[in-house]
Design brief:
homodimer; 250 residues; ten-stranded mixed beta sheet; 23% helix; 28% strand; tRNA pseudouridine(38-40) synthase activity (chains A, B); TruA/RsuA/RluB/E/F_N (chains A, B)
Chain lengths: 250, 250
């Protein structure tokens, strides 16, 4: 059966996350139903990142096996037509046939996330649901400086959801950059893989550094504690975007 | 009575435009109701730009006279609290007391608009309602080149709504820049003032240049015709943002 790679953008707001859940709208279900309308096949697609409820994606990657040979552009346009008709907030950016060895989840070499904080006194009107609103002034420079303590290979138990199903809390964080663009603070995180809630947990703790409640040393101590209780607030899903997934050969 | 300048951001999607209309939700009404909840006064605010239904603003400016002296920050925070409580998609970015001679509409020396086109095969999922989706590839360079023909002082009857109430169709266009940023085309327009639907009419005609239906010369001929029938499609409101208003002394 030919395998297809499908690149997706979605507004996570209306969804209970990526993964299928009985009785709740999910992104996976929306795409699988669009595939059913295209080919009549009941499929199970696999995504690179199992984003949580309310988390967005500008570049999620999934794969699916279909009975028939289709042109990639046909799959993209047909799925988009079905998704729009169903009123879904999901779009197929690209679809292409790939080899049988491609697995959206297990072939991934790197995952990239963006977290957006709106740091101003006025609540977001245009970006409601798309940013975390923090009215208190944050020191983005201090946040970036502290963030560098989290780079490298660590036990990230502190920044891991109690529901995380990964076998090990050890991860290697390759990038955690904090930059200010006017009233907005952008945090960019990259790693081969992340623990459940890891980005939002790190962002919530960095926010404490930004508003002066924590020093850099406090953040380092929280990491070393390897204890969920040492984590700051978990940042809300609104500001989080899966922005890219790396694979061998591009 | 002290006069206040109020800077506003809004998502135009849920509103029938800026200006009060009986029985329809408008931005003006949302702000006036928030002011009533703050001070108990029934006021009429005046905005710099009377944006149409569905048009957004990152920096609309309005003014209002209130009975009492308030700190600007107090007005901003209180109005934001009332707007949020009412579920409005409007935020007060800043509020400050100004002189009696400040008039948000008549003191304005320049108005700036941004128009966003999403130019890709996939429909917008994250930016739904915030961009004009044009799946056919557009030549942004050709659009920019042609746009320069519209600069300067002209009779803009071609690019004017039949419902426009301005006394004269003569306007001076100071800027009309078209740039591509990845899949997005941004059009930035500046003038002392615009006719009703002028930006959307110019964008709709530029889109014809971008997709090859029109040459630059066709756009110039449309301008010279000074005839509404010569206009291309009026671009939808979704992509339009009022991004700034200039006043004397900043």
């Amino acid at each position: 059966m030919p395998r297809y790679r499908i690149d997706l953008e979605y507004d996570g707001g209306p969804y209970a996350g990526w993964q299928r859940q009985a009785g709740l709208p999910t992104v996976q279900q929306a795409v699988e139903e669009a595939i059913f309308r295209l080919s009549g096949e009941t499929v199970s697609i696999r995504g690179a990142g199992r984003t949580d409820a309310g988390v967005h994606a500008t570049a999620q990657v999934a794969h699916v096996d279909l009975m028939k040979q289709w042109r990639g552009d046909t799959v993209r346009d047909a799925l988009n037509a079905h998704l729009r008709q169903a009123g879904e907030r999901v779009a197929v950016l690209a679809a292409a046939q790939v080899g049988d060895d491609f697995d959206a989840r297990f072939s991934a070499l790197g995952r990239h996330y963006l977290y957006r904080i709106s740091n101003r006194r006025a609540p977001p009107a245009l970006d409601k649901g798309k940013v975390w609103w923090v009215p208190k002034a944050l020191d983005a420079g201090a946040m970036h400086h502290a963030a560098q303590l989290l780079l490298g290979r660590h036990d990230f138990t502190t920044f891991r959801s109690s529901q995380c199903q990964a076998n090990s809390p050890i991860r290697t964080l390759d990038r955690l950059d904090v930059t200010r663009l006017g009233d907005e603070i952008e945090i960019r995180a990259s790693a081969r893989s992340f623990l459940h809630n890891q980005v939002r947990s790190m962002v919530g703790s960095l926010k404490r550094v930004g508003d002066g409640a924590w020093t850099s040393a406090d953040l380092g101590a929280a990491l070393e504690a390897a204890n969920r209780a040492a984590c700051g607030q978990v940042a809300p899903p609104d500001g989080l975007y899966l922005t890219g997934v790396d694979y061998p050969d591009g």
